[in-house]
Write a structure and sequence with these properties.
The protein is an alpha/beta fold and 336 residues long. 32% of the residues lie in helices and 25% in strands. The protein has twelve helices and twelve strands. The strands form two sheets. An eight-stranded mixed β-sheet has the order 6-7-8-3-9-10-12-11, with helices on both faces. A hairpin with a 2-residue loop joins β1 and β2. The radius of gyration is 21 Å and the shape is globular. The mean pLDDT is 90.
Length: 336
Amino acid sequence: MSTGEPLLEVEELRTSFFSADGEARAVDGVSFTVCRGETLALVGESGSGKSVTSLSVMRLFPSPPGRIVGGLMRFYRDGAVHNLVTASERQMKRLRGSSISMIFQEPMTSLNPLLTVGEQVAEVLRAHTSLDRRAVAQRTIEMLARVDIAAPERRALDYPHRLSGGMRQRVMIAMALACNPKLLIADEPTTALDVTIQGQVLELMRGLRDEFGMGMLFITHNLGVVAQIADRVAVMYAGRIVEEGGVAALFARPRHPYTRALLRSLPRLERGGALRRGKLEAIAGQMPSPLDLPPGCAFAPRCTFAAPRCTPAMPPLERIPGGQAVRCIRWREIAA
């Protein structure tokens, strides 16, 4: 449960990638807060800027060509405030893995195939703690058991290829939580898993979040997953947040046309559990290139509610009653 105490504050973050073709504005003025004990989900199509936002927080994007060109990122730890934009690489190495951890999308490519999973969990502990060899080995087994891996002593000796996708993702979670981080960033952690295992992993992550009292930034394109794990959700499009609010409120009354379109594209069940018949609604068109963003509202070329006044200038992110925020000048007409 959220304490309301800020853990991570991001203000007007701008991250660009520079090439011979020009500046690609992957993240273009993103602001959000993650509090202790809560989960904020960043949602949007591929290319919306979700993963680049998370990599910006960790400062893990390739530089060059990537660079944070504006904004602030404040991380609060033990009464101290760390500016993640100006922090040196040495300071970031101290924070990564110990205070801020990340779970990546595909565990098979994130885990080292040449090391046992136990060695990989132990490597995190050796890098960020002063535990001796015996204590590291004990903590490794404890963490594998904590993420519900059966026979952890035996599994610690296995190489990643011998584990299922769900088991590998559990190992990644064990590595991320080994040093009791304050903030966990999860980038599409359930994408490669089947629905049953996905549900188990989400339940595990929710329980560990509550147990450790950490904040979580959860990256996904799946609104169904958001409903299961998040407290608040921020919808991203073309590098910007276009709608934000509590999960229940946003699902019940989406204000932005893009959010409405995403929700209409979800499979729905009839009463009794039967899948509703008919074609799923698709969003026409494609996400604009970050090298050539359109003027005004970036969603206007795909929006069924677009009007001439949508294109001259970018709409502000307007705070509205109920704790939601929306970047659309026509949201009142749409909601009516």
